[in-house]
């Protein structure tokens, strides 16, 4: 096992590689997505994205969660974008379908059995052999225990997954059957937070752009999808999606987005994603940071998680089975 890096003490507080820790009482590996992105910046420099022509690194800090459970948008001094969305969360997160491409063993492929699935950076396959291309996105969930006065749900495991910039899913789409990128698990810290480093998902025909997630009681429970205590999806805001989909690496996504609304989407249409719309900051050049408050009520019975059979190719089966990927 690799050694957990140790911070150094400075007059301003504990730091790692010259950067002050965002959460000084936590280990370096538990500092959250914005800190991870700054670390990537120092080690790799500006990341060139093939086919996009932009250095997409996240410079915006993830939005903090206010005491009333709503997400407030913030950004650091380097963020010049005025595109942001603030979402107030009330009520339990809606149960939603896991879709036909969950990779949780419920319909065949099972990434949750693989060593290394517990990770923040999901831009590459677990073995590092393949990488997903797109505008970088750091996203964070804060999971609250609705049955216990919205206390932070420390220790729950969150499995998140989403499509590529072309609207395809690893482990299912043609040519991606042996790829495991854009899938990962994180365990909630004392504030109920989990964070991931990924890319902005594309928009395929029949679905609003989104990120899937399942929540498990603990990390030992993830090997059986029936253990999930909540299954839902996070909707990406329209303004940021339009910005990203103007790039050539997301060919087809702009047209697909123009043909659907949150109100007409077969998942978010019940309430236009009132409690599932991400708070976001950033821009296509610097990347984006998204957050969502997720309230889970363990006194209710989960009603989602059973995945349709799906096909081997991403997006097969029409909108009710997950939509169709955009044409190249």
From TrEMBL:
Swiss-Prot/TrEMBL keywords: Dioxygenase, Membrane, Oxidoreductase, Transmembrane, Transmembrane helix
Residue span of region Disordered: 67-112, 299-328
Protein name per Swiss-Prot or TrEMBL: Dioxygenase
Biased composition (Gly residues): 308-321
Residue intervals of the Intradiol ring-cleavage dioxygenases domain: 108-205
Pfam families the UniProt entry points to: Dioxygenase_C
Low complexity bias: start-end ranges: 70-90
Transmembrane annotation, as ranges: 46-66
InterPro entries documented for this protein: Intradiol_dOase_C (IPR000627), Intradiol_dOase_core (IPR015889), TAT_signal (IPR006311)
PANTHER family linked: INTRADIOL RING-CLEAVAGE DIOXYGENASES DOMAIN-CONTAINING PROTEIN-RELATED, PTHR34315
One Gene Ontology MF term: ferric iron binding
Keyword DNA damage applies: no
Naturally occurring in which organism (per UniProt): Microbacterium hydrocarbonoxydans
């Amino acid at each position: 096992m690799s050694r957990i890096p140790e911070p150094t003490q400075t007059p301003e507080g504990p730091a790692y590689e010259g950067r002050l820790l965002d959460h000084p009482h936590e280990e370096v590996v538990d500092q959250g997505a914005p800190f991870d992105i700054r670390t990537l910046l120092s080690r790799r420099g500006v990341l060139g994205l093939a086919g996009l022509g932009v250095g997409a690194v996240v410079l915006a800090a993830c939005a903090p969660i206010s005491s009333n459970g709503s997400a407030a948008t913030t950004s650091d001094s380097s963020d010049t974008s005025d595109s942001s969305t603030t979402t107030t969360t009330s009520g339990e997160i809606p149960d939603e379908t896991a879709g036909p491409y969950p990779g949780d063993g419920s319909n065949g492929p099972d990434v949750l059995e693989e060593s290394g699935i517990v990770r923040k950076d999901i831009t590459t396959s677990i073995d590092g052999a393949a990488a997903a291309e797109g505008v970088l996105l750091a996203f964070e969930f804060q999971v609250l225990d609705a049955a216990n006065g919205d206390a932070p749900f420390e220790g729950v495991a969150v499995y998140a997954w989403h499509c590529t910039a072309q609207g395809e899913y690893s482990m299912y789409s043609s040519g991606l059957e042996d790829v495991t990128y854009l899938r990962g698990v994180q365990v909630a810290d004392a504030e109920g937070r989990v964070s991931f480093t990924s890319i902005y998902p594309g928009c395929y025909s029949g679905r609003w752009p989104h990120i899937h997630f399942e929540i498990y009681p603990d990390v030992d429970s993830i090997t059986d999808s029936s253990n999930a205590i909540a299954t839902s999806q996070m909707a990406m805001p329209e303004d940021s999606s339009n910005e990203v989909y103007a790039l050539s690496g997301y060919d087809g996504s702009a047209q697909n987005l123009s043909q659907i609304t949150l109100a007409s989407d077969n998942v978010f249409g019940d309430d236009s994603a009132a409690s599932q719309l991400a708070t976001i900051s950033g821009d296509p050049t610097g990347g984006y940071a998204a957050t969502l408050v997720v309230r889970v009520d363990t006194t209710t019975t989960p009603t989602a998680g059973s995945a349709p059979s799906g096909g081997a190719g991403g997006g097969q089966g029409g909108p009710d089975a997950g939509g169709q990927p955009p044409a190249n």
